[in-house]
Input
Amino acid sequence: MMLMKKYHLRINIPTLLVALSLILLCVHYLSSAKCSPSDQEEIYEYYNFDYLLKCDDDTFVLVHKILRELDKWQNKGTKRELYWGFFNGKAQVKRSGPWKEMDWILCDYYLPYALGGGYVLSYNLVQFIVNNMHILKLHNSEDVSVGLWLAPLANIERKHDVRFDTEYRSRGCSNQYIITHKQTILNMKNMHEYYQASGALCQKEISNRMSYRYNWTVPPSQCCNRQAGIP
Output
């Protein structure tokens, strides 16, 4: 994709750009011959934004609800950076398959990270990644890498949100969801049409697997106990 000019998005509530995937695609999935550090900086510099949402092409997003939540967040005036998604702190390092990590030497778990079906970063966090890309360790999984890169930074609000259905497979359908991953084109079309007509995401709410609320007060390996009744 060639970006020929700088785009400025102006809306009344915080600007959300569904484009962090451009930066991370460049970093992780294109060869070095096609994607140099200067290319990464250019992608970053073409946009004027407050927050970035990274999501996959099989993720359905209620963008207006994301924006509404960001408006609430900004109005709190916390002055903290935002890393918002559905977090996992006890994922074991993959040693086989397409996402295997043969040179992960930190521990036997990944560091806590927001799952890659969709997450939001505030501007300064994206700026940090881009400005330090030349010295950051790249791993096969983009979401794992982002969690690692941001782990030592201070003044970050890591916001675990059960309304983000962003795991490797969907937990089902809940009218509380504002983002849901692993959806087919037909599923997304049907959800959009039903939402436009009814204001609800699901014709029928279903649960395919239990969810969890992240416990930040215990070691990461104990963070994420699935329970019934959580979206």
Remarks:
- The chain is about 30% helix and 15% strand.
- Residues 57 and 152 are 30 Å apart (CA to CA).
